[in-house]
Amino acid sequence: MQKPRWSLPPSARSARTAVKLLLTGLLVMLVPAGALFATSQNAKPGITLQVSPASQSIERAKTASYVVTATSTGGFSGAVSLSASGLPGASSASFSPSSVTLAAGGTATATMTVSTSQSTAIGTHSLGIKGVGGKVSGAVSAGLTVNLPISSSFSMNATPASVTVPPGSIGVYSIQLSRNNFAGPVNLSVAGGLPSGSTTAFAPNPATGNTSTLEITTPSNAPDGTYSLNLMGSGPDANGTIQNAYAGVRLVIDSTQKSFILSGNLADQLAPGTSLPLDLGITNPNKKALALTNLSVSIKSVTRTSEAIARNLPCGTSDYLVTQYSGPYPLTVPPSSTSLSGSTSLSDLGITSTQWPQFKMLDTPANQDGCKGATLQLVYSGSGQGN
């Protein structure tokens, strides 16, 4: 007698079939999803370029050399041809070698040489460097400043070397001239590199003495970044030949910088050959303490007495010498609400007077009476971050 075969009830068979169908559906969905996930992790083949130095400054008719480094990404391998664009007129660029070969994940370098001529445009230029390998490419930019021939008759120096300000603020630099049998006026300018919308003002300009002050006013929408500026001085020598000198500075726009106010006046009148310290006052309108750096003060202009004006006695910014603050950085300044006077001075912060900015009137025959009783208009610059 044959035993009866055990079997699931119809409802159970339907349930098992549904489970099998559901599992099958999940497998169908999971396999493509996993394949897509794996594919997304595989980077596309590519090329990245780097250049060193990032910028150079040369005299007209000279050459500048850059090292270009190409790097393989995403497993790219093959030959990469190099080219340059954005060159100033009457100049050329060459690469040695003209192309490099990359192994997967490898790097290779080439030297780019930019040659200028006597007719190459003076100023700051942005060069584009491109590497192409098959269907992929990479790019990087480099700066080139072309100057007129540098003179031995005088030289320029600017301090501080770098100023950091928030957008919409003023950066101040002091210009010093060293003359070598050169007595003529020096016209001052910024050859290029400024943030768009910025304005510049030198005082005095032209400089007839050995000093001047540069103010750079930045727009409120200036983008954050580091700007390399090329300052130029030019003027005729005793033979009427134009002589040139240059100085490089940096302007850093940083929107994280906090606003504050610098102020102060000399406690007494200066006499020829004498010096006075300036106890800077710092107003911090922020709710937190500030860490200040790059403090500087310069003479913007000199107002002579009515008697000196009537007698046509000269006195100008070149009759004074300013020595900048030499104390420690950063300077921690509390909110002004904690100060009874509304501002905090360098003396309040325990800075000795020998480290304050120092103002000296030079002792020359021409300024003995012209500078007597004169009033100095000062301009300040600095940067600060919240603590």
What does this structure look like?
By secondary structure, the protein is mainly beta. The chain has 3 domains: 46-147, Immunoglobulin-like (Sandwich); 149-257, Sandwich (Immunoglobulin-like); 258-387, Immunoglobulin-like. The protein is built from 3 helices and 26 strands. The chain has helices at residues 10-40, 306-310, 367-370; strands at residues 46-52, 55-59, 63-73, 78-85, 91-96, 99-102, 107-116, 123-133, 136-147, 154-159, 162-165, 170-179, 187-190, 199-203, 211-217, 225-236, 242-253, 261-263, 275-277, 281-283, 290-303, 320-323, 331-333, 344-345, 358-361, 375-386. The chain has a 5-stranded mixed β-sheet with strand order 2-9-8-4-6, with no helix packed on it. Strands 1-3-7-5 form a 4-stranded antiparallel β-sheet, with no helix packed on it. A hairpin with a 7-residue loop joins strand 14 and strand 15. The protein is flat, with a radius of gyration of 33 Å.
Secondary structure elements and their pairing?
Layout: H1 10-40, E1 46-52, E2 55-59, E3 63-73, E4 78-85, E5 91-96, E6 99-102, E7 107-116, E8 123-133, E9 136-147, E10 154-159, E11 162-165, E12 170-179, E13 187-190, E14 199-203, E15 211-217, E16 225-236, E17 242-253, E18 261-263, E19 275-277, E20 281-283, E21 290-303, H2 306-310, E22 320-323, E23 331-333, E24 344-345, E25 358-361, H3 367-370, E26 375-386
